[in-house]
Specification:
With 540 residues, the protein is mostly helical. The protein contains 23 helices and six strands.
């Protein structure tokens, strides 16, 4: 195994060397000599640092996000539904007949490509780890993009590491699993391949990025128009236009087909009634523009040096203004930062390139200037990561300052990671109760128990409270009073009365259920059960 890894490392190093040597030969034709040797050594250490960064990030965040899952702080509405979508492809919940349950989800077509692999070992933990590793791999195309644009190794490594430290993407990773989170690495890889003239691979990555989420196609259309209108790439404009027209066609097909089968309400659902999520919140033009200021702050505003790449953010800007939906413009906690983060980093790389071109005259002074700027990005990103990421919050929770948090990120509050990942006796009790529920049965549970979605017939509290006379009663119901979803609704705009507590009490009120197990307020009831509880330890 060690020999194989060493051989793979050597192949990657040689490929890096070959690519750079070809570029140097084509550009100058000079004897490379000492400069070449210096570059190869630099590339070797660049690669070591990058691999170490990716490995460290993947390990730390895999542990944190898995613990969040095991402590029942993950959600059904995100991890549960998405894992169920993948699971259902090969377990009877998939059909090509429109209008039926399980009809192909054209808004997230990437799931059809992931499903065969996922169903080899269909466990939610696999998705959690996959997302963590996949997000971290976005640093690789960022490095190559920066290396090609800037040329200097240190700034390239610095901005690649800044991706791993970038606090908005930490929030994406923390918030369970979303297909949208697959977009950044694919988009960045497509851009890197495009820069290096690998047009087929570029088109493949961009196409896969387009099918990760329904919000992506409009972004890709504007990106394609940007490619067509960009006059800075005359030498390969024909190839770029082919990619652009292919992406426009694919994006248009997704938009048309989705709205045809699911109705225009599918599109408008991203806008209408979103403000009901938080009636006191108003996403005006200033607040929304401030969102982008907070997003570029860890890069010391380098993306603002190349504003034309930020045009790709216009669809997101419009969506945020129309919807007044807080999660769209939260830089932490939510998955939507994955739509804007890769664009911001690409603009940041171009901004660094522009700083290099128009910086201090003199090659030596210019290199010092760009390296200092890159060091500043690394420092700013590190400080923000220490204060405003789940990993950093473990060590810096005592420094929580709501005013400073709002000033720097636009958010008030923090992750409270230590308490969210600490396994308690209550968590162990829930795990035991979950193991008592046979797969394939129906169950009403809270939003914080995604373990009961995949392979079960899951009923939301709203299903019980709205449709109690038209649906079959669930075989089991379980509630966890130690979680916020016990007495709070799940979905934006839902009535405050639609809670797991009320649904559970309604089921108990039928007289058809018996207490199967209880531990300090955590209760599992079974339809038609009349025996003594398997465990009974009521709250004091």
């Amino acid at each position: 195994m060690q020999h194989s890894f060493s051989k793979l490392f050597e192949i990657i190093r040689l490929l890096l060397q070959e690519t750079y040597l070809k570029r140097l030969v084509c550009s100058s034709g000079r004897n490379l000599g000492r400069d070449t040797k210096r570059y190869v050594i630099s590339n070797k250490y660049d690669l070591i640092v990058l691999i170490a960064g990716v490995s460290l990030y993947s390990t730390i965040y895999s542990v944190i996000t898995l613990l969040k899952f095991y402590t029942y702080n993950a959600t059904v509405a995100d991890l549960g539904i998405n894992s169920g979508l993948l699971y259902g492809v090969f377990h009877g919940d998939f059909t090509l007949t429109p209008g039926n349950r399980g009809f192909i989800n054209t808004g997230k077509l990437i799931y059809l490509l992931i499903a065969p692999v996922y169903n080899l070992y269909p466990k939610e933990q696999v998705l959690i780890v996959f997302q963590t590793v996949w997000i971290s791999l976005g640093s690789v195309p960022i490095y190559f993009l920066a290396r090609r644009r800037i040329g200097d190794g240190f700034p390239s490594v610095a901005i690649a590491l800044a991706w791993l430290l970038y606090y908005p993407m930490a929030g994406v990773n923390w918030f369970d699993f979303h297909f949208m989170a697959i977009f950044p690495t694919l988009f960045l890889a497509g851009e890197a391949f495009l820069e290096n003239g690998r047009y087929r691979l570029s088109l493949l990555c961009f196409s896969l990025a387009t099918i990760t989420d329904f919000l992506i196609p409009l972004v890709m259309i504007i990106f394609s128009l940007f490619i067509i209108l960009d006059r800075g790439q005359e030498k390969d404009q024909a190839e770029r236009k082919k990619i652009a027209f292919a992406l426009i066609s694919l994006s248009t097909i997704i938009l048309v087909v989705t709205n045809y089968f699911f109705g225009l309400s599918y599109t408008f659902s991203y806008i209408v009634n979103r403000s009901a999520y938080d009636a006191s919140f108003y996403s005006g033009i200033w607040y929304t523009l401030s969102y982008f200021i907070w997003m570029v702050f860890p890069l010391i505003f380098a993306p603002l040096l190349y504003p034309k790449r930020l045009i790709l953010l216009l669809p997101f800007l419009a969506l945020a203004l129309l919807s007044m939906y807080r999660p769209y413009v939260e830089t932490m906690f939510e998955q939507y930062a994955s739509l804007t983060s890769p664009i911001i980093f690409i603009a940041g790389i171009h901004g660094l390139e522009r700083l290099k071109i128009h910086g201090t005259k003199g090659a030596v002074k210019q290199k010092i200037s760009i390296r200092r700027f890159a060091a500043g990005i690394l420092l700013a990103s590190s400080l923000m990561a220490m204060l405003f990421t789940p990993a950093g919050n473990i060590l810096t929770a005592h420094l929580d300052n709501p005013e400073a948090a709002f000033l720097l990120t636009g958010n008030i509050g923090n992750y409270n990671t230590a308490s969210e990942i600490a396994i308690t006796n209550q968590d162990l009790a829930i795990s035991w109760m979950v193991s008592l529920i046979p797969p394939g049965t129906s169950v009403m549970a809270q939003n914080n128990i995604p373990q009961l979605y995949q392979g079960y017939t899951f009923l939301w509290p709203g299903n019980i409270l709205h449709n109690s006379t038209t649906i079959s009663l669930p075989d089991y119901a379980i509630v966890d009073p130690y979680n916020v979803f016990y007495n709070h609704p799940v979905f934006p705009g839902e009535s405050p009365n639609i809670t797991a507590e009320n649904a559970f009490n309604q089921l108990l009120g039928t007289g058809l259920y018996g207490i199967y197990a209880e531990y300090q307020g955590i209760e599992l009831i079974e339809l038609g059960f009349h025996g003594a509880p398997l465990i009974y330890s009521p709250s004091l």
